[in-house]
Write a structure and sequence with these properties.
Blueprint (H helix, E strand, L loop, with lengths): L1 H34 L26 E6 L2 E9 L2 E3 L2 E4 L3 E8 L5 E5 L4 E5 L5 E7 L3 E6 L12 E6 L5 E3 L4
Parallel strand pairs: 2-5, 4-10
Antiparallel strand pairs: 1-2, 2-3, 4-11, 5-8, 6-7, 9-10
The structure holds dinuclear copper ion (CUA).
């Protein structure tokens, strides 16, 4: 009898974690998807990487206001800069980045926000970020793309009474 009870508890010690771990992962998935709004980016469009500079909207990279507090940024990520490299929006803005690459695989990452996408040549990445508080939000390329990868960066300036975009120095 005692032996049987011991085996049962031993099995239970394995059964409970095997249920708790998947349930915990599911909860984590639901929290990140619906609570923190982290999503996998979908393929929203394609563009001929050889014709990025003449294909709208990437022929005119920059910031466009869609409505009160809502903006869209058409951005080209190339070796080794972002164009535009500086964006200014007022606090409380919702900014959707529409990004592509004419050359190699880059990344677009804004720390302290849920903004992190791969930028593939031939594909258009689309991701929305919210900027509630004033401040400087640097963004950077997080995919190794060559010699000057570590210099590939820019910033979002969130400050009152401002909206604009500046191209990179290159
Ligand atoms: Cu672009 Cu690393």
């Amino acid at each position: 009898m005692k032996r049987g009870t011991t085996i049962y508890l031993y099995e239970l010690a394995w059964i409970l974690p095997s249920v708790a771990i998947p349930v915990g992962m599911l909860v984590a998935l639901l929290v990140t998807a619906f609570g923190v709004h982290i999503h996998l980016p979908g393929v929203v469009g394609r563009v001929n990487p050889n014709r990025v500079q003449s294909t709208p909207p990437f022929d005119r990279p920059g910031l466009v206001q869609l409505g009160p507090g809502r903006y869209e940024v058409y951005m080209v990520a190339r070796t080794w800069s972002f164009d535009p490299a500086e964006i200014r929006v007022p606090p409380g803005s919702e900014v959707t980045f529409v990004i592509t690459s004419p050359d190699v695989v880059h990344g677009f990452f804004i720390p302290r926000t849920a903004t992190n996408v791969m930028v593939l040549p031939g594909q258009i990445a689309r991701i929305t970020a919210h900027f509630e508080k004033p401040g400087v939000y640097p963004f950077l390329c997080h995919e190794y793309c060559g010699l000057l990868h570590h210099l590939m960066a820019g910033q979002v300036l969130v400050e009152a009474q401002s909206a604009g975009a500046h191209p990179s120095g290159t």
